[in-house]
Amino acid sequence: MTTRLSVVCAGATAMSRIGGFAAPDAPLDAAGAAAAERRRRADTASAVVMSGPENAAQQTARAIGRKAAVVPALADMDWGAWSGASFAAVQARAPGRLSAWLAAPVRGTPGGEDFAAVQARVAPWLDDVARGERAAVAVTCPMVIRAILTIAIAMPPEVALRIDIAPLSTSVLSFDRGWRWQELGRA
Fold first, then answer.
1. Which of 8, 16, 72, 185 has the fewest CB atoms lying closer than 10 Å?
2. How high is the mean pLDDT of the chain?
3. pLDDT of residue 1
């Protein structure tokens, strides 16, 4: 039997619109909430629906169809000292640090997680989903989606970090003896 996993990026927040490192409690902004409401999904009726613990991920999951089970493995990358800060604020506080991070985001932010840590916590969850042999929808953040893709299709992290993941975009994967990336849908 085939498992189908639809990974939905959380809707837009104020921080995602200006560029920065969202805090876990950041809500969807008004336009992000309205866009999520317009994205109600028929595939949530019979699917297992999960989300990261962030406020925006949970709000998005509710807006697209159902309350989701919160899965800690789907938590956004821990941004450490930069959590809740815009790119402009980080640049003003520590000139050059943002540029260094943008050049090599796999290393993580000061006091935060690196990309390998995100992959390490996502991998067992992805294995569990594969064994589920059912439809699943997961709502999470761009860095977690990139981690899922690197694991599922053995993509190098450096390549995955070049993929822009737009709010409310959907990546569809299927598992039948191995993961396949079937679709990258726009918001």
1. 72
2. 91
3. 65
Question: Amino acid letter at 42?
Answer: A
Grouping H, G, I as helix, E, B as strand and the rest as coil, residue 12 is: coil
- Beta-strand pair 135-140/48-51: parallel
Residue 184, beta-bridge partner list: 171
The token duo for 68 is: 């989701």
> 19 with 12: CB under 8 angstroms?
no
Report residue 183 as tokens.
């679709």
How far is it, in rounded angstroms, from Cα 164 to Cα 64?
21
Residue 87, burial from CB neighbour count under 10 angstroms (0-12, 13-18, 19+): middle
Q: Hey, CA dihedral for 185, 152, 101, 28, is it positive or negative? A: positive
